[in-house]
């Protein structure tokens, strides 16, 4: 097939090319071009299957990986890369060219219904893990789609509401993860639904120019599904493809072109990028080769689940010992009974295999018969109160009682935000009643974003965050509970005590406008500035091991400031420790957050041994965005380097100076 340029296309063909074909394909112009197939989603391929009449039958079953929030909780670049590589294999199996992922939007509000799809409240963590995910995916010959560009941080009236954000906050918080992820050269990006400072994301030329001219993005930009209001305005701004095909928009687009409302030069620019995408995908197809078997991909899913689960509280009850008299309750413990161990919307994946049965898995590992009763549905009691009564009797008779609680697709989903940070009342009551009857109560939480645990947090012995853990989550969870694996995940977002404490709470929000009045003080930045107590801080997570930090050494090289320090495992269990590096300016001429994450590392340390952790901070780790000069700027002065086990547990400190833009020790 001859490789075409825009000169080979008529104006009519260019207009048609920019409007896609159906829901999931670029237009082939009657066979003149290769066709590109796109598909959801970030944690598993969601490819639709149609009958002979073209009517949707089902989504084809695929491997369901843990939610992106769980991937972020691993703080493990290798896990992010493996997930991308494994998803590439799944896409190859399903003949998908571009996966509509990942999403790097910042978790500004704990109630956002899609928080489970996003990495973090911190742009550095989000951007660096997204880079690995994209690079892993595209190394397998499958394209990525970086989304949702940008300032899309709530589902509430997402098609119309304007995110009102000042320039510096946009640059340092909401655009930064896109900038970092663009280093992986994603083949495409997707605009958001919302307005940014009054302009629809699909028509935001300023944003598209930043993406292309500053971040080095060289792919095609297309719309989120039905995000285009005016196809001509979107094309003039630089949006290349509208998804899905919209006959009304297409006809208006053609009429506008004939009326001279869009120039040939503007039309050619979009068409050229779509042609580049088409041929780029065609070249990538030639390199495709499945690297992992399905069993190996399932092992990756299990590994990510294991490293992404976070032990939030442990009064010595875990790990469980063999022979422990144990009871389990809650529908999440055996989710084959309900389809609620994932968030809802475009990220939802039809399971390939059977869902896990936690009581059975624990019984096999501990050599006991585990008493189980579902007791409640996620939103309410099951058939009657008698079911809950039975579960409580089991708890009364047990050494350890486990309550599996959480949210699920009915509560956390695309298109809706949560009503509350708290669990449904029936679940809170079940936790409290179980804790009254069993002094060693373990709560396992299946959810995708921060929860208010104030009603019961102090009444239970253990809190383990299992998140939306995907297809291998049951095995991973059972291993962690029984000590076959050691918890190593840490929170990628702060857990405030309650919604009212969250940094975006009380800022102006109506059906038309959301004002980002907290500015730079998102998540831990705001809690630290205010000195506000939180339930669990950013970067927090317990282990069965204990680690000591020693001997911070700094050196300056071509790549930036390199940190080396020693981690000592002062326990009798092998473990992994996530170390976080924050930067704090000593004196500022502009407002700076109290401290900001600029590096991290995850290090394996054998029991009783030491290991050296090393990471490098790039020069821009000390920069802020100057709105006065419209550029990134690093002030001369003193900066503190803080090495911590969490944002609130700083173990090592040092100071460096910056003079004339150079680091001085």
TrEMBL record:
Q: Does the keyword ATP-binding apply?
A: no
Q: Does the keyword Hydrolase apply?
A: yes
Mention one GO molecular function.
hydrolase activity, hydrolyzing O-glycosyl compounds
**A Pfam family matched in the record:** Fn3-like
Give the UniProt record's GO annotations in the biological process aspect. Answer: carbohydrate metabolic process
Source organism, top-level taxon = Bacteria
Keywords attached to this Swiss-Prot or TrEMBL record, sorted alphabetically, are: Hydrolase
Q: Which residues form the Fibronectin type III-like domain?
A: 577-647
Recorded hits in PANTHER family, A to Z, give: BETA-GLUCOSIDASE
Member of which family? Belongs to the glycosyl hydrolase 3 family.
Q: What is this protein called?
A: Glycoside hydrolase family 3 C-terminal domain-containing protein
